[in-house]
Fold each of these.
Amino acid sequence: MTGKSENLSAGGLRLSPTTPLDEGSEGTATVTFASGTRITVPVHVVWRQTSGSNSEYGLRFDRLEGEDRVALLDAVYAQPGKTRDSEQFDALPGAHTAASEPISTLSPSHHAYYLRLIHRIEKTHSLSLADTDRLLFAVLQQGRDLASTLIEMKLTPYDKLESYLGDIYGIPYANLNMLKPDASILDIIPESVAISQNVVPIQRIAGNYIVAMADPLDLPARDIVHLRTKGQFELRFGFLKDVEKAIKAVYQGASIHSADMLIDEATAAGKTIELYKEVQEVADLETLRRLSDATPIVSLVDSILRSAVEERASDIHLEPVDDCIIVRFRLDGILHEMRTIPRNLLASVVSRIKIMARLDITERHVPQDGRIAMRYSGKDYELRIACIPTVFGEKLVVRLLEKNPTFKTLRSIGFSERNYQLFAPLVRRPYGMILFCGPTGSGKSTTLFACIQEIHDGTTNIMTVEDPVEYRVRGINHVELNPRRDLTFPTVLRSILRCDPDVIYVGEIRDRETADVAVRAALTGHLLFSTLHTNSAIQAITRLVDIGVEGHLIGASLIGVVGQRLIRNVCGWCRETYAVPSIEANLLRDVLGVEEVPKRLTRGRGCAHCHNTGYYGRSAVHEVVVVDEELRHRIGTSGSDATPLLDHLRKTDFQDLRADAVTRVIDGETTVQEVVRVTV
Ligand SMILES: [Zn+2]
């Protein structure tokens, strides 16, 4: 039997064999790695997932202990990038081969470091085999953060984390995300030593240098620290990635907060050679080019772009005001002021970005837009640049898009179980119209691409018309609007219909003409997805009536509508529970309709990870309207009146956005304030 495995962990294996297996069947598997290592493990099939003609299985290794366990651990984790070996499985009926494809994002040195560290944790805290395996898998294969995984796995509560980590080496743990190293004591350890030994001086207390070290067992590194500080030091333990980040931030000015050095350099250079004085109305190309090519400006712009990627920002705003330029990042949907830059650097910084985006740097009075390709930390990004003249000068907005993101599957998009059960069958219908609604930035395209991915198996012709094309997916025909060449939603849609499509995605329905063609396409055997900018799913239906589509045509073509919002999650680093005050309890009861208000809820205290907001990351909440016979009839007859539609929904399983969001509050994933902000 042959197959392909996607995940291999010490606990089991995900496998797609060519011959079907039975759930529950047992046997022995012989796993052979290219390195020659061979182990024999009892296995059983624990789950099976079928999509189309392919089936995936989860095989669990049973009773894997002692030598065999170590051999497998070594093979799976010890050699990053080398686990794409082929393995032979010959226990279950016949023999099959598998090639594992780990999604490890760790570099070899990080890989080895975290492997060592986790084994040390296993020993110090007597972890069970299963816990060690889960930890190894999460950190080494999935590239997840070790500390937050420890908390998620409930190996330690958040408030005991520091002492838990301190016990590993018997040395206090230093959270370098919170402690900013004191730049004035950096001289004690030169940058090259810090980088090669993975140590960073943090501060000086009572004559002693406090030095954080990634591996406190590294004796040569300890000796060097001893030598450099003449024995006046205390050690702290910090994670390798945090030590490296701290080194970058303090020595190399990679963080946006340490861009001051670059700014000092830039302004100092400006004073001496008068390069950076405000460029007047008529700026000649030569001057602007010289300004923007100066090394400090190049580094400053790079450090802003890099730190935006590191902070997971979706947009960067550079806003001139009368006395400075404000740099703001959009994090989880909300703008945060990150720092300011001296006003006299405006022309140079803007020109630098414009040159990168191949825009006209002499034109400063008309809006322009362009793109920059950037590679950072092994990932490709596309930066969309837009500049617009404001009364204070040119404002610049940079949108960051990851170029080849791994799209979420429909299962992992964050639908509640009931919404998933309602929605998933719609995507497998052969034809009809499915609409997504919600404001800009509510995650509609992520959900849409999850749907398309569900359908995209190489047997269908999927065509899109978008404004602009956001993500490019191999095998999908994306068409971008270009009104100057008469590529508009209705014209492109008509052309698409002549190209034998099965599935069509129309970026947005905003006029009668597009709506008419879309409805007709859905009625003539195509599965059509589109979006509308309405607040609720029901409003999407009445909006179509308002723009002039006949009710009975909408009823006949529409199969479902999904309303969506993104709500911020409580930060996993600083989450805490609190007694619900009466004002909040009343709000939950009277406004949000919660019948039994819990005594305690969850919130984030605010920490360095979440910029003191208490939130980190977002998840989607939904409302799903499935068009059944009764609703179809009512849409056909009620015109733009939403009441009869809502009356019917109340009699069904329908749960609106707010109700979905409230369940997330009860589950401790988000807060009441966030639900109010997003849905009220
Ligand atoms: Zn936090």
Amino acid sequence: MNIIEHIIERTEARPGDLAWAPTAALRALAMDMVEQAKAGHPGAPMGMAEIAAILWRHHLRHNPANPLWPDRDRFVLSNGHASALLYALLHLTGYDLPVAELRRFRQLHSRTPGHPEYGVTPGVETTTGPLGQGFANAVGMAIAERTLAAQFNRPGHDIVDHRSFVFLGDGCMMEGISHEAASLAGRLGLGKLVACYDDNEISIDGKVSGWFTDDTPRRFEAYGWQVLRGIDGHDPAQIEAALQTALAQTDRPTLLCCRTIIGRGAPTKAGHQDTHGAPLGPDEILRAREAMHWPYPAFEIPPDVAAAWDHRAEGAAAEEAWQERFSRYQASYPELAAEFSRRIAGRLRPEIDAAAAAACEAITGQKTATRKSGQIALTAFAPVVPELLGGSADLTHSNLTFHPGSVPITENPAGNQISFGVREFGMAAIANGIALHGGFIPFVATFLVFSDYARNAIRMSALMHLRVIYVMTHDSIALGEDGPTHQPVEQLAALRLIPNLEVWRPCDTAETICAWAEALRRHDGPTLLALSRQALPAQPRSPSERTAISRGGYVLAQSGTPQAVLLATGSEVALAMAAAQILVNEDIFLRVVSMPCVSRFEAQDEAYRAGVLPPDLPVITLEAGTTASWRAYAGRNGATIGLDRFGESGPEAAVLDAFGFTPQGVAERIRMLLGRHLNERS
Ligand SMILES: Cc1ncc(C[n+]2csc(CCOP(=O)(O)OP(=O)(O)O)c2C)c(N)n1
Ligand SMILES: [Mg+2]
């Protein structure tokens, strides 16, 4: 018997022994990666080594050769600082992540970045690191799985049938989003969701008993979860038994509460917060190797252990079995199978163009709130975009994010509407999970002012290039009586700062339909639609002006030889038009530019942008929000009209009047500004 056989033998027979070879391999790689990088987090990977090994070697259904196999189990590492664990797992099971990449842990342009990043490393299902969000992503994945299964499976044909597993630590549990996501998951009874809690009683500042003494099992029981308490997270037999119990449960999500020791295996540092986020150091690593009976040099995995971990053959067989099932499904339901493939590929049906055109044709001259226009667009697109899955954070009838074909998933599992409850952050992170899962285009809604609650998840949609659509209504002080707590002022500017987020603030139904269509067509990032509570007039447009909407900014109107450009967005476009009309009578001529999407306009070529905003014309910007971001457009010769303070409670007209957002008020500002400008020039 060689040494490895000896180790495997001896330790398989003695659960919990540190020298259990596959687990020792995980621990060794995690220690070595962090040591090599001189940065990272060895504690959680070493503490979760047994749980990870049992799950990945015996239960997780995945194919390392095809990380995109649609029916794979999903695995989320919500405690993303434990990235070394995930990279070790991916490497050992046979993903395209060679040891050279493990050696480059945390280096620039490696496939092993500091925290797991979606799209960078094959097999990484979501970007994690902002604690708690990975857990909510996993809830989204489980919702997506169940809904997709209900929509596509047929008797005897389970083409969608997989689980979502998530690891999370004390940090994720402390974050409020864990409550939002767990509560909804409990209500929905997501039976294929399994969470493994790394209950090591340590976070960065030390023993959590000083700041976190929740009874977590009872908390999750109260949500309606199956909770498996008191599992020794270093005892393979207990972990295995708990996972089997979890897999047998189909009506409720399961939480495995695993007592672990952070940095387990490090002879002097185990159990101490020092292992959380710093290399163990060469001496400690040497002694850990001895304690684990792991005599191999850094990054070396002996062939027997490598073979024990290699999941490629099993993974390929699992996917092949699914392919056979899918072929039979295809034979029985060719149209459904084609639709399934289309949805998984994220391709839109071609009818979307006709739906957009028909919706635009049907526009009446009636004043319409753009939140209502959003509903018109949703109603037009929903029949040809059955992959739409979403809803509101308890503001459905304010956000108007329902349509005649809306069916709550709580009434019919094959439905398309989710009532998220008052959980904006959870909602956004769940939407990310739905988008990551595939097969759906998620949309979520709340008041624009509460985008701040969801902000980091919106940022994560943008970072991960996910097609998530945010419908955010009541987009200015014009919402009136609810007052400054509800009146967004700085949110538009703040959202436009998020790279790769397209923020649309349409001015009427035509622009809203265009914005919705662009959001659907976008493959590489999220879109946020800022929509008005108040009714807005439909702007007249030539066919070419209508086409220009998708460029993000265009000339909407012009009189005479303009002295300035009046650049407005959303509800202030109508205001700009009215002010310009007043000024025409005084021989002050303006060009009115509507700019529903600044970043889209920025992406146009120089010639187009200069055509809309000629360099020699001063620009006056008009938006009922903070002005800092508009100064770049106003430049030295122009000006900004906006609101650099909080709003006021009062009826819409009174509030707008108080802040000068009336045709007369704006005309007066422009008179003054142009007078100043002309004086400066002469
Ligand atoms: C939202 C968020 N806040 C703070 C951090 C910084 N941070 C990373 S890990 C951590 C402590 C996590 O404790 P725990 O989950 O128990 O991890 P362990 O030390 O047990 O590995 C903190 C505060 C973060 N990554 N995300
Ligand atoms: Mg901890």
